[in-house]
Specification:
Layout: H1 2-21, H2 23-36, E1 42-48, E2 54-60, H3 85-92, H4 100-106, E3 110-112, H5 122-129, E4 139-141, H6 154-166, H7 170-186
Parallel strand pairs: 3-4
Antiparallel strand pairs: 1-2
Length: 211
């Protein structure tokens, strides 16, 4: 009942309220980005949506415009060199994700759900298939994000995503919503830089498409 009829209404209301309440924050971020570096305020990036379709996700730009295109941040050996001063703060506080409230309003995403994989992140998509985690809408935050985030190996991240998808309830979404707020305040699980191939850990899901 909740997953099929109520969740979308809750998503829409929360996203709309978020855009209104956070409008002063949006304005401050927009001004800061424009003063800090050349380039657009927002950038769009192709991500994996429900049932492995694709959509364009919105983010605040956190990297210089001369950053190599179509390469995930975790594959850049010197990722920090491309991240702007304002971008570093936005990433640490996850504020670069705020424009995704627009994706939620459009129906591309949910507030709670598996984080949308990069269009070329086949390893994560394939792992999620094992748990039917690609069958639900991706989210602004999810169980994996409050259970380790970027520090999680892909098989573990996919398992958390699958665990969430088996138990989608209003109570679980509420717990994850407030759990995310606590995680963001503590700056938990955020990593930048190249992937550690020996541990099999994808350090960051953010792409270097100037975002």
């Amino acid at each position: 009942m909740y997953e099929h009829y109520v969740k979308r209404a809750v998503d829409f209301i929360l996203a709309l309220l978020g855009l209104v309440v956070l409008s002063p924050v949006y304005l401050i971020i927009i001004i800061a980005i424009k003063l800090d570096s050349k380039g657009p305020v927002l950038f769009k990036q192709k991500r994996i949506a429900q049932n492995k379709t694709t959509f364009e996700i919105y983010k605040f730009r956190t990297m210089r415009i001369d950053t190599p295109h179509n390469m995930p941040t975790h594959l850049l050996a010197n990722a920090d060199d491309y991240i702007t001063h304002v971008g570093k703060i936005l990433r640490q506080m996850s504020l670069d994700e705020l424009p995704q409230l627009l994706n939620i309003l459009k129906g591309d995403m949910s507030v709670i759900g598996p984080r949308p994989a990069l269009w070329n992140q086949d390893d994560l998509v394939n792992e999620r298939d094992k748990y039917h985690a690609n069958d639900v809408k991706p989210g602004l935050t999810g169980l994996a994000q409050i259970s380790g985030r970027d520090e999680l190996p892909i098989p573990i991240k996919a398992k958390f995503d699958g665990q969430y998808c088996r138990h989608i309830t209003f109570a679980s979404d509420t717990r994850l919503f407030f759990g995310t707020i606590m995680s963001v305040m503590k700056h938990e699980g955020v990593k930048e830089g190249k992937v550690d191939i020996h541990r099999g850990v994808v350090i960051n899901e953010k792409s270097s498409n100037n975002g």
